[in-house]
Design goal:
The structure is a single chain. The protein has one domain. 71% of the residues lie in helices and 1% in strands. The chain has 20 helices and 2 strands. Helix 4 packs across helix 13 and helix 7 packs parallel to helix 17. The longest helix has 30 residues. The chain starts with 5 loop residues before the first helix and ends with a helix.
Length: 476
């Protein structure tokens, strides 16, 4: 075997010696060194944190935390923070004056807006620190927390004279989708179109989201269509379809949840690169990107604290608000349809709406549509199955047997919005028309009568059909 060359031994000894400084401390080899990464503000970027979300601080700094949270993400979000005094007032009046039902409802309704806005802002700050697609998904999911909390509180409440929480949940499911599709998207088109002749968006965002909403809408109304058609026949007019309705609804909920998992896989894994490219290009179109990059940001710890405070407030407010719905429906004679279809969705979606409208105003239409359509998809494919499963576990008859009015409205709304999204362009006229449709639906729901206690509208229709069939037999 050849002996090692003296020159190689000398070089090796020199390299080993060069790995130690004059004090004898071992230094890393130059090949293993990595230069620290700094973002646009000169802050050293923490490992695993997106440079755009790096705050340059660690832990929690109370003064900076309050200042950043109050400033929020947009001027209208900042103005919403002036409503924070309503939060302690709403909680206090629930215990101090439990008989003041109307004031408890009004104060908690208003207090829900700033609390939900803090969830939206905390989620947005957290999303900045994550990869683009995953960040949007996390932000949208956090925005749906208010809705999930309200649904879970409602499903635990017993039905009473003139008030059925399941009917309110059913209306709120469809109302949430309507508020996103018509009100929020309409305001995005309108506000974004005021400064521009038209805005464009990528078909990967619009077509995928609209296709999912159309399929989800069909799945949600199919149990209602199935049962309503059979109840209008002579043979099955007097048949009780309650057990069949529950079985169909639970099977549909399982399928919808599976569809949500496939959608997440599609967005996060198989087509992750496409969504990343679209959203990164959208960031470059941001009209005030330089301002967003320069402003102070929350640390990761502060994001978690902000979300914890907001979730605590939202949970308390949701409980107090739901407790007063019976009074509003029974004593103030506000219709179930209006409460579930309009009032509850508007307040629970306030944070998401403000975020999406701000993005549309800054010409980030792909981000705005990702939030709007993503929220609709989560309501239909995640939140709805969750409340069906919880009702199943609690022994509640939580079905998807929606009233005919609600089912028709949701399908027509999906078709209207789908037509506007088809050309991948938007302007303020399209936005105005979406809001007009939403206002018409709100007026109709305000006058829509409550079904009899313990009956859905399709049950009433079925009984009317059975009575008509009986009259025909007697005349024969």
């Amino acid at each position: 075997m050849a002996e090692p060359s003296p020159e190689k031994d000398a070089n090796h000894t020199a390299e080993k010696a060069g790995e130690r400084d004059h004090g004898g401390t071992k230094r890393p080899h130059p090949k293993n060194r990595t230069l620290p990464l700094f973002n646009h503000n000169g802050h050293r970027v923490t490992t695993g944190i997106n440079p755009d979300g790096e705050s340059g601080r660690r832990g929690i700094h109370p003064i900076e935390f309050l200042q950043i949270c109050f400033r929020s993400s947009a001027p209208w979000s900042k103005y919403v923070n002036f409503l924070w005094p309503f939060v302690p007032a709403a909680i206090a009046i629930h215990f101090a004056a439990p008989s003041a039902h109307l004031w408890i409802f009004i104060l908690n309704f208003i207090a829900m807006v700033p609390a939900a806005n803090l969830i939206g802002f905390g989620g947005q700050e957290l999303a900045r620190k994550l990869p683009k697609v995953f960040g949007v998904l996390v932000e949208t999911t956090l925005g749906s927390v208010v809705e999930i909390v309200l649904f879970m509180v409602l499903i635990t409440r017993p039905a009473s004279d003139g008030f059925d929480p399941i009917q309110v949940i059913q209306a709120a499911i469809l109302g949430s989708i309507l508020a996103n599709l018509l009100l929020c998207m309409g305001m995005c088109f309108f506000v974004g179109g005021l400064k521009r002749e038209e805005q464009t968006f990528h078909k990967a965002i619009s077509e995928t989201g609209n296709g999912l909403i159309l399929v989800a809408g069909m799945a949600l109304v199919m149990p209602s269509a199935f049962i309503a058609s059979l109840r209008n026949t002579t043979e099955y007019g007097n048949h009780d379809f309650g057990p069949e309705s529950l079985r169909i609804s639970r099977a549909t909920a399982i399928i919808l949840l599976i569809s949500y998992v496939v959608y997440i896989w599609y967005q996060m894994r198989s087509h992750h690169g496409l969504y990343d490219d679209v959203l990164e290009a959208d960031e470059l179109r941001d009209a005030d990107r330089h301002h967003d990059l320069a402003k102070a940001k929350l640390t990761l710890t502060e994001c978690i604290i902000a979300l914890a405070i907001a979730l605590t407030c939202v949970s308390l407010i949701a409980v107090f608000l739901v407790d007063e719905i019976h009074y509003i429906v029974h004593e103030r004679h506000v219709k179930d349809a209006f409460v579930g279809l309009i009032l509850v969705p508007v307040v629970e979606k306030a944070a998401e709406h403000l975020t999406a409208i701000d993005e549309a105003y800054d010409n980030q239409m792909n981000f705005a549509l990702a939030h709007v359509l993503g929220a609709c998809v989560q309501t239909a494919l995640l939140n709805t199955p969750l409340v069906v499963f919880v009702g199943w576990g609690l022994g509640k008859d939580m079905s998807l047997d929606f009233e005919t009015f609600h089912a028709v409205v949701i399908i027509l709304a999906i078709l209207v919005v789908g037509n506007f999204l088809r050309d991948q362009k938007s302007d303020y006229l399209e936005g105005f028309l979406c809001v007009v449709v939403y206002v018409i639906i709100a007026i109709c729901s305000f006058y829509y009568p409550n079904p009899a206690e313990g009956e859905s509208e399709s049950t009433v229709v079925g009984e009317a059909a059975a009575a008509e069939a009986g009259h025909r037999l007697l005349r024969a």
